[in-house]
Amino acid sequence: MTDDEAAVRARLAALEAEVKAETDAKSAAKAAALERLREQKAKKDAERQALVAGQAALVKKQQPKPSASDDFEGALQMMRQARGVKQELTRPREENEKSWLWSGGLSLLLGPLGWLYAGSFREAVPASAAYLLLATILVKLPFMFVLMPAIMVAAVVSGAIGVAYSYQYNKHGSRQRLFGEKEDKKKLKP
C-alpha cells in the first residue's frame, strides 16, 4: 500500500469512528429522554390512581349503607300502600261514585272512549277523537294483524288509566285531570 492509500484508510477509519460516536451519543440521549418520559408517565399514572382511589373513598363514605331495617321499612310502606289501594277498590260504592270495574272495563274494551265514563272531558274527548281517527285508518290497512301486539298493550294501558280516572273521581267527588297541570280557577274580585 502506498502512503496515500494508508492515509485515506486512516481518515476513513477516523470518520467511521466519529460517525459511530455521534450515533452512540444520539442513541444514549434518545434512551435517556425515553426513560424520563416513562418516569413522568408512571408518576402521572400513580397520581391519577391515587386521585381515583381518594374519590372512590369519599363517595363510599358519603353513601349510607342500606341496612336491613331500611329495606324492611320500605317493604312495609309498599305493603301499606297496596293495602290502602285494595281497601279503596273493594269498598262498596256510594251513590255518586264511579265504579272502577266499569271504568277499567270500558277503557280496556273501548280505549279512550271508556275514559268518558269517569275521566276529565278535557283529556278524554281529544283522546277519543284521535282514537277513532286512528282506528278508522288502521281498519283499512291490509296488514293490521301485525299491529295487534301494540294494540293489546295500548288496551291494557287504557284500562289502567280508566281505573285511575275512577279512583280520582271518587277521591275528589268530580272529574279530575291525570295529564298536564291542573289550572287554578281565578277568583273574580267583587
Low-pLDDT ranges: none
Question: How many angstroms does the end-to-end distance come to?
Answer: 131 Å
Mass-distribution shape? elongated
User: What share of residues are in beta strands?
Assistant: under 5%
Number of strands: 0
* Tally of individual domains: 2
Roughly how many Å is the radius of gyration?
41 Å
Order of helices and strands: HHHHH
The helical percent reads over 70%
Mean pLDDT rating: 84
Give a quick account of the main beta sheet: strands, pairing sense, barrel closure.
none
Number of alpha- plus pi-helical segments: 5
Q: What structural class should be given to the helix and strand makeup?
A: mainly alpha
Descriptive report:
The protein is built from 5 helices and no strands. By secondary structure, it is an all-alpha fold. It has 2 domains: 62 residues; 94 residues, no CATH class. It is elongated. The termini are far apart.
